[in-house]
Amino acid sequence: MSAVDAKIVRTMCPMNCHPTFCGMQVEVESGRLKTLSGDKDNPDSAGFLCVRGRATSEIFGNPKRLLYPQIRDDRRTDIWRRVSWDEALDFMAKRMRSAGPEAVGLWAGHGGFTVGSAVTVQLMQRFAHMYGCQNWHPAMVCWGLGGFGVGLTGALKVNTKEDMAENSNMIVLWGANISSQPNTARHIVAARRRGAKVITIDVRRTEAAAQSDEVFLIRPGSDAAFALAVMHVIVTEKLHDSEFIEAHTVGFAELSSHVLPFTPAWAAAETGLEEGQIASFARAYASTRPAMILLGGSSMHKSANGWHAARAISCLPALTGNFGVAGGGLGPRHGAHSAAMCWCGRPLIPTVLWRSGVIAR
């Protein structure tokens, strides 16, 4: 193998993890991928590469990948024929003209992100605007509803994983499995070794549970109920941070009245937990400073009611004065840099709104 044929390329893992991609060192020979490994000189991932990243080599050059367009003339069969790109484009254009812009919708797939380029999605959006058809963001079946709920509450900024490792005294993994956020996992481990308490709230015992001091397994879809009962305890037992609430939030009086019916006993029936577990968690969270919540990036938001959970959970740091402090607030999760959403009507759950880019009613 000559020096001309082989080279080492530094790049980033294309697997669309959050909050950051991992550095990757790739050996290329004659234009083909030969080996890959974590880039030890990357200042963020420092050589770490999870099983997804290490499996990237199975994608490139895989004989099962579709490399050419195919058309199925009869949708009642599973018979496809290979066609040219021109024929495929003409086929789509003809169908779109026949249906009209009002009946055409574009939906970007996950592959548009895993190649490491958001340009694909941006071009689709531009085409939709020019053509006048409907366009759906792929995040709406992922973390979009969660971002919507967090944005309505006003918690638009998150703390970093490095800050969590160095400063958090409590880390709450709320529907956040570290296997889907592997680059954050080592920072959780570092915080726990330093003495931070790690708590997992989820619907099953995930990989995160193995790194946790306490685990709360709740019924699917009951995250909002759990958070409302936690707020009930914090408010009624006067565990909230009055100075922070007065200086940085609006709506506390409305929220205080709203959470009164949502007692730990009520939430126990909704979540499957014991009443004492809910109250104990609320007191521990309110009395530990700084405390950080890593809000689930996808699964907990994939329901019509999922954005209520995000809204309710993101109230907790504001109630306890954990926003704007090292090691507190919300931790790094999916799309955190773009969690801000527009104000769309009156909220269904009165919330504490952190005054940081909040749109007034």
Protein described:
InterPro entries: Mopterin_OxRdtase (IPR006656), Mopterin_OxRdtase_4Fe-4S_dom (IPR006963), Prok_Mopterin_Oxidored (IPR050612). Keywords: Iron, Iron-sulfur, Metal-binding. This is Molybdopterin-dependent oxidoreductase. By secondary structure, the protein is an alpha/beta fold. It folds into 2 domains: 6-58, Single Sheet (N-terminal domain of TfIIb), CATH 2.20.25.90; 144-354, Dimethylsulfoxide Reductase, domain 2. Helix content is 36%, strand content 16%. The strands form 5 sheets. A 5-stranded parallel beta sheet has the order 10-9-8-12-13. Helix 5 (144-153) runs parallel beside helix 13 (306-319).
Which descriptors would you attach to this protein?
globular; N-terminal domain of TfIIb; 14 strands; 36% helix; Dimethylsulfoxide Reductase, domain 2; 3-stranded antiparallel β-sheet; 5-stranded parallel β-sheet; 2 domains; alpha/beta; 361 residues; single chain
DSSP strand tally: 14
Q: Which strand order spans the largest sheet, edge to edge or round the barrel?
A: 10-9-8-12-13
Order of helices and strands: EEEHEEHEHHEHHEHEEHHEHHHEHEE
User: Which residue ranges are poorly predicted, with pLDDT under 50 across at least 5 consecutive positions?
Assistant: 337-361
| Structure class | alpha/beta
- Determine the N-to-C terminus distance: 67 Å
The CATH class of the largest domain turns out to be: Alpha Beta
What would you give as the CATH superfamily of the largest domain? Dimethylsulfoxide Reductase, domain 2
